Structure formats: C-alpha cells, structure tokens
Amino acid sequence: MGSDGVAGLFDPDRVAVVGATDREGSVGRAVTENLLTGFDGTVVPVNPNRDEVLGEPCVAGVAEADAEMAVIAVPPSLVVDVARECGEADVRHVVVLTAGFGETGAEGADREQQLREVAAEYDLELVGPNSLGVMSSPTGMNATFGPDAPPAGSVSFMSQSGAFVTAVVDWAKDAGLGFKDAVSLGNKAVLDETDFVRAWGDDPDTDAVVGYLESIDDGRAFVDAARETTDDTPVAVVKSGRTDAGAQAASSHTGAIAGSDKAYEAGLDAAGVLRAESVQELFDSARALAGGDLPESDGVAVVTNAGGPGVMATDAVGDAERLRLASFDDDTVEDLSAAMPDEANVYNPVDVIGDASVERFSEALDIAAQDPDAGSVVVITAPTATLDFGELGAMIADAADDHGVPMAACLMGGDRLADARDVLRERGVPSYFDPARAVAGLEALAEYREVRGRSYPEPEPVDADRERVREILSSVEERSDNRLGVEAMEIFDAYGIPTPEGRVVDDAAEAQSVAEGIGEEVVMKIVSPDILHKSDIGGVKVGVPVEEVGDAYEDLIARARNYQPDATILGVQVQEMIDLDAGVETIVGSHRDPQFGPLVMFGLGGVFVEIMEDTTFRLAPVGADEAREMTAEIDAAPLLRGARGRDPVDLDGVVDAVRRVSQLVADFPSIVELDANPLVATPDGVRAVDLRLTVDPEELES
Ligand code: ADP
Ligand code: MG
After folding, report:
1. ATP-grasp domain spans which residues (predicted)?
2. Which-ligand-closest: CA of 572?
C-alpha cells in the first residue's frame, strides 16, 4: 500500500484530516466520521484547537500526522497555507474539500491559482478544490463528506459533480454496480480526468472506467491517455452541458455547424471512449463492461419465455448500430428442435414458451450460446408459475460462466423476480427490466470490441510548400480584416489540393484576357473580405460567355457596392467552369476547438450546407483510412458511389483532399476556421472551387 503518483490517492495507510472537528453538520466532521467507518488504515485528525475529535487523538499540524495523504477541510483562506504545510511535510497526496475557489469569482480564482502554484512547487497530486472527496473499496476508505460508501466492485468512477457521486453511490446498491475507486474531481485545479483515466488504465483492479464530465480541459492529452487505457480497460462517459456556444461567432459553414459538442464527439471517438447519452445508459454500459467477457461477433441470440418481450428485444437489436440478430447454423436449429416442444420457436429469437421449466430454459440457453454467430445473449423472462426464479438466476449465471459469452438478463417483472435479480447481482450478470436497456448494455460491449481492435497509425505525411502558405496567411497582417477568401486559393496549390484554373483581377480588360485564356465560358466571383457568402448577394456568375466578361465584371462590382458601399473590394475572380452535373458538391472544412484543437469536417457541400447538415468530424490531421471512413459516413455517401446510374466520383481524390486539408490546419495553428466549399467531386477528379478562412494574427509565426 501507499503507491506513488495518482494511484496513491486510493491506497494510503495513514490519512490526515486537516480541519477535523466534532461540530455537527460540518464537512470536517462528516469526512472524519466516514473515514473512521470501515477504513483499514489509520485516520489522524488534525486541529490545533482540539485534543481529540470523535474520540480519536488529534495533532496540531499536518507535519505531526506522519500521513501519506491529507484531506483538507479548513476555511478557504487557510487552504493554500495548509497545502504548503503538506508539501513541506512531504505529504504529496492531497484532497481539498473546501469550496470557495474558482467557482466563486475573482478572489476565489486567485486563490485557486495560488493553490496550483503550491501544488506545482511541491509536486502534489491534488484533487479539488471543491471536491466531495475520494473513495476506494479495497481498503474501505471513504474520504468524502457524502453519506455512504459504495458497494465494492471493479468499476472506477470520476465525476465533475460531487452531488452526482452521492446520487450514484446511493443508487448503485440497488443497481448491483460495485466500485473500485471513485473521485469527485471538483474544480480540477491540478488533477483532472486525464490523470485518472491514465491511473486507472494501469490499475489491475479496475475493469471499467466511467466518468460524468462537464468539460475536458486538455482534449489532446485526454485522447492520448484514453487511447492507452482503452487498449485493455473500457472507458465510458456522459458529457453533460451540450452547448453550441461558439457557433454564433463563426463566420464559416464549418464553424457554424461545429459547436462544442461536435468536438467532444470527435474527441471521445478518437480516444476510444464510449459516450453515453444519459446517466442510466452510462451505468448500464458500465455493468456490461465490468463483466469482462467481450463478444466475438456482433450477432445477438435472444432466448425468451414470452413472445412480446422477445419482439421488443429483436427490435432493439435492429435499432442498435453495431448489433444484429445472430443467424443460427443448422446444428443449432436441429439441436433446439430436438430439445424443445413443438410449439417452441427454434429460430432466433428462441421462444421456450410460457410453461418452460428452468431445465428447458437452460437447455435452450446452452444450445443458443454455443452457436458460432452468437456473440452475446439476451435472456428474457416474464413471471410464470412454472419457474423458481432463484434457480433461474443461478442457471443464467452458470451459463454465462460456462460459455464465456456476454449475457444480459431481462427480468420483466417486479417482486416475483426479486430472487433472480439478487442472484444475478451477486454473480455479476447485468439484469434489466427493459429489453432495450439490456441490448444497449451489449452494444457497449460490441463498441468496445471495435475499440480494442483499433490501431492508431500516424497519418501519412503530406508534401507541401509550407513557406508559401505562411506568406499567404501573413497577408492578413496588412489588412484590416483577418478573413481570407478566393484570393488565397494558392494555399490549395501549396498543399496539393486541385483547383480550377483562375485568377483574381481588378479591371474589366484584364478579366477579359484571363477569360480568353480559360475557355468559352467562365465563372466570375466578387472578391471581398466583407462578403462572406458571395452567391447570397448575386456575387457569383456561372457560365459567363467570354464576350460578356467585361460587362459581368462591372455588374459584380456594382452589386458589391450596392450591398455595402464601404466594402473593401479586392477585385473579381475569373475561374474555369466545372461541370457540376457530373459531380457532387462536397465540403471540406476545419474549425479549431479550444479543447480539442483543429477538427476536420467532411460533408455534402454547396450553398445549403447548414440546411442539410450532412457532415462528419474528426480530430485533424487524419490519415487516408480515417478520411475514407468520413466519406462513407455521411448520408449522401451513395451519391459519391454513383447513385441512379451515374458514374462514381473519384473517391481517392476526395480522400486525398480531406487528408491534405486536415494536415494544412494541423500545420498552421493560425487557421481558426476554414471552408473549402464546394470541393466538387466528379468521376474525373476533385477540384476546390471556393475558399474561405479566418486567421488568428496572434498565432502567426514570424
Ligand atoms: P459562395 O460560397 O461564396 O457563394 P462559391 O464560389 O462557393 O461562392 O460559389 C457558389 C456556387 O456557385 C457553388 O456552390 C457552385 O454551385 C457554383 N460554382 C462556383 N464556382 C464554380 C465553378 N468554377 N464551376 C461551376 N460552378 C461553380
Ligand atoms: Mg462556397
């Protein structure tokens, strides 16, 4: 006992409670009481004003406690000094319960900063402040001021909300979920979700990690830590507080769609972390994941003694993205036919019928579970007079042990099924009332199976003229505006992303001569940082015959002036026509998220992007495989593959463009957002015909 690092917070031999007191209703009393109940180690109350607390002898300062960990419950103004005393006394594990820090305004934020500095100076593993505390079941340590310790088990739990910890602990007893460690993260001044994900990844007694998070502070660090952990320990989180803050300020399509939730989605996915939509789903997943067995296929066998619930389970399997009903082989069907009465259904879902005994149930379950396509099994039972439910529960648990196939039980009843529920809880087989929840639990296993099978190759390098891009981006420094448009199209050339022939010109005669060099018809666009969406003001003319280019030039300038008299007009772009009829307008974009850094988006493009919102996000940069997944993921993917007799587009070209844009934004932190919209994909190749990007001048390298 007494490990180093973050793990040391969960197995100290001696814990000092600084601010321990007898005063009723105080945090200092509650945590001391909890620690004195059931903790294998020693509790040392620290309080200079008392000789004993709750009958235990008290010491005056943390230096006299000879402890490995300190729990701090003193008034806010004293916390920083106490933390320093801990550092001086070489007590490196510190849990700050005291509130009144960053959550309360400027003075508190200042105090939190001081606490952070002390922690850095003494290399403290510090939880909180404003934390409910930490718990660990192997030593019976409840260093929280919550009401109860949780049941013991193999799930480790972190929560950004302290109230949520008490709620879950209370509920876990009924739900049959047991915990190894739990931590209330509080304000995360020092240790945050990344530290605990990493620590529990190295903990042999943690079979699954679950988190209730409101934010992830350093998205990329979290991804790195979680990737390592999820290699052999599943991680599931609920991320609450889905907001689209930030979307309002966006001036690109990608920024408008991105919001913060897309970043979390992309980030958690990249991390291999399962995301639950609700707290119930989180713990349903946790119960399934803590079981240990993983499905070997996505096929689900259903064994039921009631037709209706069997249909419900079948529907839930159909709705689950990653699961399908197992298709039994001939041997399985034959064996079931021989073992079951004539009225039984021997195809999946197997119906053993209402009069089934435990023996018949057991036979059916054994036969179904050994089918090669049965990756997991749902066993459903409704109350009947023929069954002893304690026996049934034991039989299901035995089958789960014997077959090593994940099983979920649906006990569709109340008190009559209590015996089965108790046995299953004891034996670690998840049970639910609702078949949909049982299936959701199994789906979490299937998802985790996919995560386990992943590898994370480095994206292929992109050859690019980075110097040229740097110059173009720096051009915003001479402008009053930090947005660039088609005048910066050379960025695409520098990164090997194909573009149509074209140039920006600033007089009609020049427009004419550029057009003559391009072809019989051209596209003309107004170029102005003040005009975000050119076609909205009639600033894009498609199919202009060469002889009309001069007039079109004047008309475009007039429109822009009319729209905004003081608009900065850089000129008009004269561009080669692309045959849109043969292609699909796609969008490749990027948005820089404050937590997760640059994201790359791919989707159905054109002027209606926000209306369609058929898009998908990843953390940038992506490699070719990931880019290909993106192109397959959008609803409009069949259009790319050639719907209704059309030729498929150059998918390799699309993949390459996505990959290159993602590298571009990863290479240049000054690119805040970027749209390549449309990137026209045709059977003969892809071409980026429009560009808009926003540059953060502060991030430009000199
Ligand atoms: P904006 O997005 O600012 O309105 P775009 O350059 O994207 O301006 O042009 C708007 C639309 O005009 C495109 O979505 C596309 O349908 C069409 N378009 C633009 N450039 C071309 C081109 N070179 N060839 C064919 N169609 C084009
Ligand atoms: Mg556009």
Report:
1. 489-525
2. 1
Backbone φ, ψ for residue 384 (5° rounding): -135, 165
Ligand 2 mean position, distance from CA 677 (Å): 4
CB 470 within 8 A of CB 697: no
CA of 690 to the centre of ligand 1 (A): 7
Contacts of 129 (CB under 8 A, 6+ apart): 76, 79, 96, 97, 98, 99, 100, 101, 112, 115, 186, 187, 189
Tracing tokens 């919550």 back to the chain, one arrives at: 146
Neighbours of 462 (CB within 10 A): 19
Q: Left, alpha or beta for 186 (phi > 0: left; psi -120 to 50: alpha)?
A: left
Q: How far is CA 158 from the centre of its chain?
A: 15
Phi and psi at residue 264, to the nearest 5°: -65, -40
Cis check: omega of the bond before 621, within 30 degrees of 0: yes
For the whole model, what pTM was predicted?
0.91
Nearest CA to ligand 1 atom 14: 606
Could you report the per-residue pLDDT of 471-493, keeping only the tens digit for each?
Answer: 999 999 888 889 999 999 999 99
Q: Cβ atoms within 10 A of the Cβ of 16, count?
A: 30
Q: Report which bound ligand comes closest to the CA of 576.
A: 1
d(CA 442, CA 406): 8
How far is 239 from 405, CA to CA, in rounded Å? 30
Query: What are the tens digits of pLDDT across the range 85-127?
Result: 999 999 999 999 999 999 898 999 999 999 999 999 999 999 9
Which atom, in ligand 1's list, is nearest to the CA of 675?
2
Query: Could you give phi then psi for residue 674, rounded to 5 degrees?
Result: -155, 140
Rg (CA), the chain: 31
